[in-house]
Amino acid sequence: MSCMMLSPAHIATVAHGLAYLLNQSEMCQLSAAGELYDALSDCKYPHDFLYDDRKIYPVLYRHNELAYEGRYKVELDETDEVPAMPDNVPHLLHHLSYNEHYFLDTDFFKFLKLLDCFIYQCEEQATADTNLQKALVKTSIRLYAFAAHQNAEYSAAPWCI
Predict the structure, then answer these.
(1) Are 104 and 147 a contacting pair, CB within 8 Å?
(2) d(CA 46, CA 27)
(3) H or E segment at 136?
């Protein structure tokens, strides 16, 4: 297995998508794992219950950095600053159209793949057993289940035989 430091744009896009999942309530089926709410509980706007992608971004960046440094036995440099979060990143998760099922567009699957890449890059000894990593994996599983339930073939298949 290998590990790489992901780009700030990649991490910021994941941070934005996670904030969307954590903050939205209109589509109850599309949500983050409960553990992610706890793992990112310090990433809320002041005096609010909403999650801030600008606070999630440095947490994810440091998580990826810890995985990378642990994998390649690089000395931790506590003086390194997290790069500024890019302003213009894709906002891949958004309100989905509904007609008996939610319509999953290309952006949904792009986000899911970016999240999976992030999870893969952080599946290292230094980070694999952290609450954040476990919560990200559970969130990814929830998104796959959500996608399956929106599939017409899945809905048409018999519940039991």
Answers:
(1) yes
(2) 25
(3) helix 131-149
What number is the average pLDDT over the span 51-70? 97
Position 77 confidence tier, pLDDT thresholds 50, 70, 90: low
- CA 24, 28, 32 angle in degrees (round to 5)? 65
Residue with tokens 């519940």: 159
Cβ neighbours around 47 below 10 Å, total: 5
Nearest to 52 by CA among 81, 86, 27, 22: 22
- The two three-digit tokens of residue 148, written as one number: 């399956």
Token pair of 83 as six digits:
């790069």
Give me the sign of the Cα torsion angle 13, 16, 21, 22.
positive
> Amino acid letter at 41?
S
pLDDT tens digits for range 102-160: 899 999 999 999 999 999 999 999 999 999 999 999 999 999 999 999 998 998 999 99
Could you read off the pLDDT of 85-96 as tens digits, one per residue?
999 999 999 888
CA distance 53 to 74: 28
